[in-house]
Amino acid sequence: MSFCGVKPSAIKQHLTKLSGGDLCRALAVAGLVLYAVCILVSNPSGQSTAFFNSLIFRRQGRYLYTNTDINDLVFGIASSASTWRTRRQYIEGWWQPNVTRGYVFFDVPPPKEYLPWSPFSPPYRVSENISRFKDFNKHAMPFAVRMVRVIKETFLEVPRGVKWYVMADDDTVLFIDNLVEILSKYDHNEYYYIGCNSEAVGSNADHSFRMAFGGAGYALSYPLAKALARNLDDCIKRYPNLYGSDLILQSCISDLGVSLTLEPGFHQIDLHGDISGFLSAHPQTPIISLHHLDYTNPLYPAMNVFQSLKLFMNVSRVDSSRLLQQSICYQKKNNWTFSISWGYSALIYENIFPPSNLERPLQTFVPWRNVYKPPAFMFNTRWVTKNPCETPHFFFLDSVEQKPGGYEIVTNYGRKWDRRLPACSSTGNHSADWISQIRVISPAKRYVGGEGKRRECCDISRIYGGSNITEIRLRSCMEDEIIIV
């Protein structure tokens, strides 16, 4: 006789080694596990999956394992009545009415022109009057006190049923599905302060290399947010000379014994000008946020800031997991290298470059404050040159579509300008000038990248000479596959 295939003698042999409380706990866990196994064996349908997704083990009132989803997050957005006219377009680009939870906090009530309040924006709140802090200290940036207290005011608005509190500025664009995926890696019962520092060395030097920049956004686990809410006002009074809400917050979190957990998908974008080089060599991790888009060129050429952002968000809704993820493949016949930044750009080099080279962004941008000696950035870059063997042909996203049947996604990238350079003579004078479009076909299933994962491989499947189109297929890399030819 057996119970779901498990012999009682085997269970008895293990249980006799335990006693007292350990035996009780073992019996309880064993019972739950055996029950779950029986459910799965007897009902291999989607109902079993739903059962496992809802199964929660508790120990002393804490979760041992749960799935994080969008309902577990609450957002606190620092804004002002004077910036809302333009900044609301950033927020409404990612906010999901009746799905996302949170508030935008103003310094004063919004003008009547914004009333009745748009259902496509987060509900608003007016921050508490901070004049009482003037009796205790003289902060260099008084408005920073209001901004740092957004975390406390957000917690007080929603003090229960939350795993993560996410703070951001009103010109921050968030990619919610990727954010949920990243936060799912961490135990929300512990004290976590998750974000990233600036891309510019100077910005970090001015503030802290151990600080999450608030424009990029950051996430606080429930117990940390709770501890901050209790102690924040006293902490603000302890640090009257700190410049900026981000640094005040980091100091208060450090006082609680917590350090920054870095996630490189948060992007402060302390860069000016053309950031296409940076986005075309995105770190191998899901993109979580973009900030400071007012100070960069539009994401896509021949569009304004909000037109290009709309296209970028549309492609993210089709597949945010692949957005900006880099794939590299080669066409040996012509000595060409293709670098795909999914949903954004496709580059052709008339030369063979190893992935270690192409992971370094082309420096098409300048740092936030161009007054520091090199190194200016927190990552290695490649210089932009006029050498035809090193300068790529740039193609940018035109469209995205799901193929009939829903198994594949097609993204199309068009040439926006001529390279205006001769062919690379050292590799055979195989010019790519005649190619006008690159079509990339990818699997529809969500791509799981990040730590411990490989980037997707790709193959040049066809080159249509008559229509000037190159077709590339993304796929999982084979075991031990070496990418470079």
From TrEMBL:
Domain of life according to the entry: Eukaryota
InterPro entries recorded: DUF604
Any one Pfam family match given in the protein's UniProt record, by short name: DUF604
PANTHER family: FRINGE-RELATED
Name listed for the protein in its UniProt record: Uncharacterized protein
Source organism (scientific name): Papaver nudicaule
